[in-house]
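Hey, I'm writing a tutorial for new members on how sequence and structure tokens pair up, and I'd like a real worked example in the thread rather than a made-up one. If someone can provide the structure for the chain below, I'll link this post from the tutorial.
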Amino acid sequence: MADQNIFGTFGKAKELRQRILFTLGALIIYRLGTYIPVPGINPTVLNEIVNQTSGGVLGMFNMFSGGALGRMTIFALTIIPYISASIIMQLMTSLSPQIAQLKKEGESGRQIINQYTRYLTVLLATVQAWGFAVALESTSGASGSLVLNAGIYFKITTVVTLVGGVMFLLWLGEQITERGLGNGVSLIIFSGIVAELPRALAQILEQGRTGAISPILIIIIFVLAIAVIAFIVFIERSQRKIIVQYPKRQVGNKIFSGDSSHLPLKINVPGVIPPIFASALLLLPTSVSSFAGIGSDSPDWLITVNSLLGRGQPIYLAIYIGLIVFFAFFYTAIVFNPDETAENLKRNGGFVPGIRPGPPTADYLDFVLTRLTAIGALYLSAVCILPEILISKYSIPFYFGGTSLLIVVTVAIDTVTQAQSHMLAHQYSGLIKKRRLGGYSR
């Protein structure tokens, strides 16, 4: 009944409707930009190259860009340079005392860190765009060279176009976060994956029609995708609630009893960061080898390494799991500081029942968080490895992989949660307004 009342207020929540419409309009602009090509690219040769390297890092980042990389458009780099810059700045927060001090200064310090992140985004985007331009000029297919007119003019044009696309997406994401609904950067990646899902579905059905995949396997894939989505929702909504007790306090002549609250700890604190970084590191050698053109005349050790790191190979899967576990613990250590949390609880008079304030509380939080992170790392590994096997053995599109499903489900959960929060705020503000009007009428 409560949920019905919440969703029943949607028609009256004018601000929420405006936010939703603004978000949809911004995402439509983003999708239109994924079809504006970079000047000087031969589309026929590009299609040949994309089909040949679809299993490497090109295919994975093409998924994150919503097909923009495969079409080599102005949004080919998507928002990945900004994500990389944000991770580096978070690392610097824990390594540099100056940046750590900025983080403690509140809103002013956060704005300075955000400005540094933008500068770093421009730098990373420029380096990546230049690398793309050089790689494009040295790439050719059966129909000829990929670049129509190679030279310094093409390199400069490509760099300016791609870097401009990254910064425009960064600005668009900030506008969605401020004036729309949900996290803008996450929604941009989310919309790219969702927009390409119909094509991936048609590809699977076409493979079934031609006999490349059996109909039974297609049914198993769909059932498995639904089961994985349900499992992701269950884990992402799960929390470990640590009870926090506050002592009795005296205000004037009155003594108020101690309050009780809880500290929620998610099982999967780092989200989709570990699979993204692990995939990028693992697919980089195979992608470099594909551009370098490793063949029978290459050294034996290079051919062996390239084959062992192929998708679906046991060594590849083992290293993939190891990287996911490493990045899960590494990123969790960055975003959650047990010592700082314990100090804040002690400063506010809070304590965990049965645990002394200060360092013992920090040790207890670290112990609980380590166990939760271990469970979260196993969960991420299981979600990513099973689709990885299907992708390598049966040529299933990336869009049905674990990383893509993780992004889609987690962003959808966060967006729905924000929408419910806006509807609750509108409902409560209406009740307060009626109460005030009733008081004046008396």
